[in-house]
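Hypothesis: this fold can be encoded by more than one sequence.
Test: take the structure tokens below, design a sequence, compare later.
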């Protein structure tokens, strides 16, 4: 065996890549029911195994687990995953990073370069497949949401079905069914009716408070308040692919929701609201603090937001909002949604255009 450690490097990284590909393959097979994707991942896994064997042989003779100085280096992030998206991202990262190390080692161990070329091709293919798995388990995620409509019949100027259809036509990104006073059976029927209208348009439906009703109705997720099920318990109810939103009135509540794996945070209240008149107003300061503390975590500013203060939300750093009365009680819900969404999207694009390396 070589004394420079390259064969050990190949063995360790080949094993790391196979583990990552196996994780992605299992996600494709058992979570997504994506037969073609699982097949392609399996194929790449076998190609990596064969290429590594051409460098160090088919057995694990270079392995020296006891003598590996890196086995005790474990970060906190390796001991917990907030959801399946994080699992897919971690697996994809292991695969592409491991393939790169294999490719570089092969440039030394294989003079002809054919194995290095094989690893390079496998790395590109594995990256595309890992991206596909991550995108599939991330489908419908709130990172691009601008307007979530909190649908409450008592606030609707017209029939709630018409308000819903109008909001969807205006570009609503998600619907949250918020009916605090409906009995569970009636709420279940309402959520199913909302899904029948929203799902053909590709709009996610979230249920306020009730994880059990969300699962029974086949909704896309649940939004939890401070007095509802803990996030970890709700995750066991709704499953890994469902969305979980959590309300936060300060940074401490937000930090707990973030650590527990909430997919997005409802931040507020922003201003005086008839929905929760007793809630403390966080105002622009809370939005600014949240944007600074959790810059990559999707956040929906909530509470008393309308066409008169949406620019103040944007100036505070808000890039997504959850609105109820201003949309449900409007003469033209579609027009309100479209106006708010366009302003938020313009703010997002303006920030992006000023980022380093942007073109235009």
């Amino acid at each position: 065996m070589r004394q420079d450690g390259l064969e050990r490097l190949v063995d360790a990284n080949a094993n790391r890549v196979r583990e990552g590909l196996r994780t992605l393959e299992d996600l494709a097979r058992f979570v997504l029911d994506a037969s073609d994707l699982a097949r392609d991942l399996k194929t790449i896994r076998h190609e990596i195994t064969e290429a590594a064997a051409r460098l160090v042989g088919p057995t694990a003779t270079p392995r020296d687990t006891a003598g590996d100085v890196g086995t005790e280096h474990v970060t906190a992030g390796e001991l917990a995953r907030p959801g399946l998206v994080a699992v897919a991202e971690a697996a994809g990262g292991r695969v592409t990073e491991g393939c790169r190390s294999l490719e570089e080692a092969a440039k030394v161990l294989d003079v002809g370069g054919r194995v290095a070329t094989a690893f390079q091709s496998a790395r590109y293919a594995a990256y595309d497949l890992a991206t596909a798995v991550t995108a599939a388990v991330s489908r419908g995620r709130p990172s691009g949401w601008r307007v979530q409509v909190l649908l409450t019949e008592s606030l609707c100027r017209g029939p709630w079905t018409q308000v819903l259809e109008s909001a969807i036509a205006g570009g609503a990104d998600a619907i949250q069914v918020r009916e605090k006073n409906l009995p569970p059976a009636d709420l279940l029927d309402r959520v199913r009716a909302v899904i029948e209208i929203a799902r053909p348009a590709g709009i996610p439906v979230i249920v306020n408070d009730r994880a059990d009703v969300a699962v029974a109705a086949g909704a896309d997720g649940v939004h939890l308040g401070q007095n509802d099920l803990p996030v970890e318990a709700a995750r066991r109810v709704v499953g890994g692919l469902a969305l979980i939103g959590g309300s936060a009135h300060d940074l401490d509540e937000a930090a707990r929701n973030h650590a527990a794996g909430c997919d997005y945070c409802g931040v507020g209240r922003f201003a005086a609201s008839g929905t929760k008149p007793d809630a403390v107003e966080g105002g622009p300061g809370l939005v600014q603090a949240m944007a600074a503390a959790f810059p990559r975590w999707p956040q929906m500013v909530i509470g008393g937001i309308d066409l008169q203060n949406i620019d103040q939300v944007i100036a505070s750093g808000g890039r997504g909002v959850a609105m109820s009365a201003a949309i449900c009680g409007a003469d033209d819900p579609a027009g309100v949604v479209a106006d708010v969404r366009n302003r938020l999207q313009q703010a997002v694009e303006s920030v992006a255009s000023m980022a380093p390396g942007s073109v235009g």
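The radius of gyration is 24 Å. The chain is about 55% helix and 10% strand.
Hypothesis status: open.
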